Amino acid sequence: MLTTYDLFNDVLSMRNMVDRFFTETPAKRRGADYPYVNIYEKDDTVQVRMIAPGVKVENVDLQLRDNALTVSLKKEDDHKDQPYIRRERQFGEFGKTVRLPYRVNPEKVEAEMRNGLLTVKMVKDEAAKPKKIQIK
Amino acid sequence: MATEVTKLKKDSYDCEECVIVPAVDIYETGDEYVLKADMPGVQKEDLDITFEKNQLEINGKVDPSLVDDENIRYREYTLYNYNRRFTVGEGIDSQKIAARLEDGVLTLTLPKSEAVKPRKIEVKSE
Question: Which residue out of B18, B26, B32, B77 would a mutagenesis test of the A interface target, given it has the greatest number of A Cβ atoms within 10 Å?
Fold first, then answer.
């Protein structure tokens, strides 16, 4: 079927685009990739804190290799087969490797999941501490 | 100009009134509305949920020990207190609203009042 060009169609699609931009914007927008990480350092301890709401302890995998800590998380989809009024939360498998400022003692790593935050506490390895060298 | 931008950026990060608007899912079943919000860093005791005049307000205070910035080396997130408000229509039984916090996820169930629940209508035969 032939139709004549209708200027208003373009105007409407433009309006939809603008509407979408304002209504479908996620609640948070950031530069870094999920999961978000903060690193804290004090004296000879280093702490990695990661935001992980809705992640169960059994779905967290931590690996330490040299001075790199790799975290893999799985946030299980809890969406129900029901009509949604709002749907902003995201699910899936996420991972990140963070480079620690120095080598840590692999025997003294403490990890804890609390209130949707993963905290990994580590202590500087003896080998990474400065040593005084005697001159003969 | 560059320093002004840096200052502006710093101010916007260091503000005390800043809040995080948590990501929320809301779905509807026959009997209730269920709301789920991601609120990492909030303890059960620091949650404040009010329902008044069809306004549902969720406030969550972040544990101050998590906001400590003194020893930070690298940052991808900043935790602020959470706040979000919803206007809820008629037909919620406000006495029966229930909340649960698990792994940093808040689940609110808002049961529908009897008047608006779906009802099966019996057809009478004569």
Answer: B77
